[in-house]
Amino acid sequence: MEAAYKEAQAAAAEGEVPVGAVIVREGEIIARAHNRTEQAKDPTAHAEMLAIREAAAFLGGWRLTGCTMFVTAEPCSMCAGAIVWSRIEKLYIGTMDPKAGACGSVFNIPQDKRLNHYVEIETGLMGEECSSLMKDFFRKLRSEDIQ
């Protein structure tokens, strides 16, 4: 989670929503990314999506079996769907998102038994740090909007 947190810090420094993700296979980080929606002018350029693309390129295929994702904030429905379809086996989440989270808060797409793949989820890893980073980013953004 520390590597994902560093990615989230990089996102914040670039003016992006501070979410970072890494994908690990056999104890090795094979992909890392942070949000780039503003820079890329792309609503799908979330950390999770970018990390999945990078891991698939690294492995030479779209099935990320045997892989674990660490992400600083609970994935949205788009990212949760991509996590399921890519066959990621385990997901560690830093802080939950009660407004738009799709991995246990609002929805729980990765563990929906109607889908073809079930993802094990663990929450709260570096939870305080991940939550603080997100809150500080939005507090600063709101104060800039007021001025």
Describe this structure in words.
This protein is α/β, with parallel strands linked by helices and 147 residues long. The protein is 39% helix and 20% strand. It has five helices and five strands. α1 packs parallel to α5. The protein is globular and about 45 Å long. It starts with a helix and ends with a helix. The mean pLDDT is 96.
Topology:
Blueprint: H1 2-13, E1 20-25, E2 28-34, H2 37-40, H3 47-59, E3 67-73, H4 77-85, E4 90-95, E5 120-123, H5 127-146
Parallel strand pairs: 3-4, 4-5
Antiparallel strand pairs: 1-2, 1-3
Short recap of the structure:
The protein has helices spanning 2-13, 37-40, 47-59, 77-85, 127-146, and strands spanning 20-25, 28-34, 67-73, 90-95, 120-123. It is of the alpha/beta class and 147 residues long.
